[in-house]
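Worked example 3. Consider a protein that binds zinc ion.
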Amino acid sequence: MPTVVHLRQGAERVLPVTVQRFESGEVQVESLRVTRFFGTRMVLASGPVSSSGRSPGTPSNYVCQIAFYGVKDLNAGPSVNDNAGVRCSCQGYRFYFDFANRKAGASHGARFTPYVRKTTTIPPKNPDQIPGACKHLLTFIQALNNSDFFVEKKRRQ
Ligand SMILES: [Zn+2]
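Given these inputs, the predicted complex is written out as structure tokens:
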């Protein structure tokens, strides 16, 4: 199952433009909430993000969710090498990565309502079905990296 590192690499292969937009800093994380599920060893980070580089007529606010599965020590935090399941409410995520991530076990939360193409067909936007992340999720992952969220970061302090 993919990790956040794999999802970043997938974004670079499938949608380099979203990586450029992420790197240009056009997405801001508005707030970040972390929930620990001790029974299932899952840590869920979620929160709203906003984007300044949007095309006219499209919404600027989305919700990102990143779940880390099988976390060894929930109090210490997830590892960057833990399996991650993601979801973003934007159209880019839905069309490029929802299907691929679901298939790879890297998806979190409810299925998007199917669009015109049946989900049994290969989405044309990502024909190799490479799991990945949109610019909102990449920004969200970076915000987690910059905080003391990951256990690797805590060890360095
Ligand atoms: Zn997104």
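Take a moment to read the result before moving on. Residues 62, 88, 90, 92-93, 134, 136-137 surround zinc ion (CB under 6 Å). The chain has five helices and five strands.
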